[in-house]
Design a protein that fits this description.
This protein is an alpha/beta fold. The protein is built from 16 helices and 14 strands.
């Protein structure tokens, strides 16, 4: 009897400990009101423990806040990291195999939710990109979530990353209860941007005409580009004259080849990546962590023969460059701006090495090693 009594006591103690742990975890969260990118005031219990990410590429931010285990709060996420950025997915999933166990859902950049799945998971918060709002409201998902007491937060580092990346990072920091890390990242980003802006302000160089070909190799159509936002803004901040800004009414736009010919670009920048999930035989340029830059350069050479660029200064002077497309939808805009500045004004930024900056970022904010492979050019062949 004494042995049974002792065993029962141990079980009771274990149950009490488990209950106390669960109770303390639940009560440690406190409600705060945050203002999201769409200026919506939303009440969320923080720090959050269960999160649905509308896009897998939000992992870029989460990995800074949960360095040792980015998967620990994510209960579901979009599958776009696996499909649009397989190199980074491989990098992260190798170091954090638990990421492979997270349920994913598919969709487009204006993706909606699997609302039944979301309601069943009962997350503390759902984080979506701003362009998903229309679809969510049209399908009535916002009302269903509100009824269930599940808050939804909208963020952005795609449409207006220059302004919204710090705001988005602060939102993530507040939700995770990691405001200090968020502010450290924002400060680091500002310091790196000033390494470009201060030099340009001091020297006021002439701006070369730059054409950005968006998602090179993702489609056979010509010529997708950026207006004044996103990569178009990156070019301006790097001291270039973005051709798309004069022609594109929106952030994302398709110019016709004749417009590009008339514009006569001095430099051509292709945004690309491993798009094998979409165009297995396409002329995409494999860029990303640990990608083969020799193979990428061979792919880049094909763009010299594109009809839209015939006779341009860029072709005459071999001024062709390719950069990781996912800089357009990540918190790493400062890396892209540094690399563009180095290409656009090599005489002013000869010593500015974006690879070195990215490596320092990894060492400071992430727990995985930096693997180069994000940029390639036809220079120094």
């Amino acid at each position: 009897m004494k042995g049974k009594h002792k065993l029962s006591s141990k079980i009771i103690s274990l149950l009490l400990f488990t209950f106390t742990l669960l109770f303390s975890t639940a009560t440690s969260a406190k409600p705060i009101v945050v203002t999201d990118i769409l200026n919506r005031r939303v009440t969320v219990n923080v720090p959050v423990n269960k999160v649905i990410l509308g896009e897998g590429r939000m992992l870029y931010l989460v990995a800074m806040l949960d360095k040792e285990n980015p998967a620990k709060r994510i209960v579901a996420m979009g599958n776009d990291l696996q499909t649009s950025d397989p190199a980074t997915w491989h990098q992260y999933s190798q170091h954090f195999p638990q990421l492979k166990n997270i349920p994913t859902f598919s969709g487009t950049e204006k993706r909606s939710l699997n609302i039944e799945h979301a309601l069943a998971l009962q997350p503390d918060v759902i984080i979506m990109n701003i362009e998903a709002k229309t679809a969510i409201e049209e399908q009535g998902h916002d009302k269903a979530l509100q009824k269930a007491g599940i808050p939804i937060i909208y963020v952005d580092f795609r449409y207006n990353p220059s302004n919204n990346t710090p705001l988005t990072m602060r939102l993530f920091g507040a939700l995770w209860g990691e405001e200090k890390i968020a502010e450290q990242f924002i400060e680091f980003r500002e310091q790196q941007l000033k390494r470009v802006s201060d030099v340009l302000a001091k020297n006021t160089p002439k701006k070369p005409r730059v054409f950005i070909e968006r998602i090179g190799g993702y489609t056979d159509e010509c010529c997708l580009t950026f207006g004044d936002g996103n990569f178009g803004r990156f070019v301006s901040l790097a001291g270039g004259d973005n051709i798309g800004a004069k022609n594109a009414p929106n952030t994302f736009y398709m110019m016709n080849p004749e417009q590009v010919l008339v514009a006569d670009p001095d430099k051509i920048v292709i945004t690309s990546a491993n798009f094998s999930k979409f165009m297995p035989e396409g002329d995409w340029i494999g860029l990303g962590p640990n990608e083969d830059l020799n193979a990428a350069k061979i792919k880049l050479e094909k763009y010299l023969k594109k009809p839209a660029y015939t006779g341009s200064n860029a072709v005459k002077n071999q001024q062709f460059y390719a950069i990781w497309h996912q800089f357009y939808n990540s918190p790493y805009d400062f890396i892209a701006i540094q690399q563009l500045a180095h290409w656009i004004h090599p005489e002013l930024f000869a010593d500015l090495n974006a690879d070195d900056t990215f490596k320092i970022f990894y060492e400071k904010f992430l727990s995985i090693p930096y693997e180069p492979g994000y940029f390639v050019s036809l220079e120094n062949k």
